[in-house]
Specification:
The chain contains eight helices and five strands. The protein is of the alpha+beta class. A three-stranded antiparallel beta sheet has the order 1-5-4. The chain has a two-stranded antiparallel sheet with strand order 2-3. A hairpin with a 5-residue loop joins strand 4 and strand 5. The structure holds zinc ion. Zinc ion binds next to strand 3 and helix 1.
Length: 207
Amino acid sequence: MSELVRVAIGPGTTALVWPKCCPTCGTKATLVETQRRLGRVKSIRPNLLGGLTMKSDVLHLSFPACSKHSREIRRAGLVLDNGPIGRFLRPLIYLGALTALGLLFHPTRVRDLGIILLFPVAGICGLAAIIWARLVSSVWPKRFDPDMDVVEIQFQHAAYAGAFRRLNAAATKDELTRAPPWYLRASIWKVALLVILFVLIGRLVGR
Ligand SMILES: [Zn+2]
């Protein structure tokens, strides 16, 4: 069973300690350091030079894995990367896959599409790659909590997750990492405020 672990990464927390075994197969022999990274865009604003300044955080995780699974985990990291390119490509992949689903119900349209047919095909290939990457990511840094210095790491095996929790008891303890209830989340109120603003503007314009 896979398990999601919330880890505190704020000031004052120490470096993470990793179990000395492969997170995929559990072997303790021939381990190599494996990297996965997680990025987030904090803000994008125009600068004086007429371009855009992007502020972002990147979290690098480095843990031991056997050489076979190390390669697999790193490749999967490229597919699941949530940098600007991944963020741009992934919606296109989902859209392409949805188009392919639509074609299943209207198979006669396939012939008229011509070169546009590449779009649903690429969507299906992309979706297959994402599913593969999720399946082989025995350590998957999923996302930063939008409201606190906490990162969520998905582990494929509960035993490995348990060992990780024991080694990082301070960083994973509940008081530090517990998700705040929804009404205390700044991100939710920001979205709510935006919606209210849009409704107000809509009313003003519609008058
Ligand atoms: Zn392995």
